[in-house]
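Progress narrative, work stream C.
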Amino acid sequence: SSGQEKGSVVFDGSTTALFKNGLKVGTLNTALTFARNSLFEDFYNTTFEVNGVSVDGETRNCLLNIKRCSPKIEVKADETGVSLFISLNLFCNETDETASSSDATNQKNNLIPESILKKAEENFTESFNELVAVMKETGCDFLGVKEKIYRHNHRYYDKYKDSYMSDMNTYIKVTVEGQK
């Protein structure tokens, strides 16, 4: 017996442990885990907060529900270096402008103010930049850049296999759209 009551343990996938060569080298917090996961799944019906946005002179917080998510990670290598292209397109609707936690029961088909959409884009862009910084700092290639060089730019693999993180330029494009 584990000493725990049946049903008393809840799996928590809100953080991600990072490993390199079998050793733990870091942890992604909840926001970075969400950002990383958004790059590997075409997911929907997931909510995220956009806080401290000015709308018509008033500061608001809101909860957006992702109705469609289209992520893409590309890696290109050439004589000048390695380029990582991250793109994410989200289509959202507003769930509840006053909600303090995820609750998709109050979905609205209202127009989402442009300032909220822009703030959401800025938040994701900032998270993706932070993800790349953590990847470089820890040496943990959780975006699969080295594998993508090997598979899609094989003739440059030997040149960059040991230095691709330091030779890598990152380009990020995030679009968040709502009801029109």
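Work stream C, second folded protein:
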Amino acid sequence: SLARWRVCAGVALPPGAVRNPSPTYLAQQRISMPFIQDLLARFRQTVTAYAGDDALMQAGVSAAANVIVADGEVAGDEMETALAGVLASPILEKGYDVLMLDEALHEAIGRAGTRAGRAENLRRVAAIAGRPVEQREGVFRVAVEVADHDGIAVIERAALSEIAAALHVDADALVKAVA
């Protein structure tokens, strides 16, 4: 049981370990810490996949919302594409149902009606900028799919550029890959 482990000088010591460990012993134990940290990170990622990743969901619907309102009209086809794209993420598919995503998308579209709301949506998109490139590109691809319903208009391309900058991805390369 982990409850019986002791911590000494920042190192978790198992039951029965040396009572006053030497610096050499502590250094040897620290070697295994990256392995434990990696294991905990993988565990956190798995739990997040089943509990729902709110930051990733908010980034996806916020990016889609900024593109949906960019041309001044909210088309039903664009909303369906946005929902389908966000649900394509295996992490989000496990943690959210269509109704939850639809509600989040409507809230993001409501925010995107004002300049301050679009900035808030971009902040939510930028919140995942430190994530793996696959997740960031996935969010950007959803936005491209939404924009590409009737061809990508100049105003939608500007919205995509802002989203790409927030995600630290190459907009031109990803637009060409999706188109």
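Strands lie at 6-8, 11-13. No further action is required on this item.
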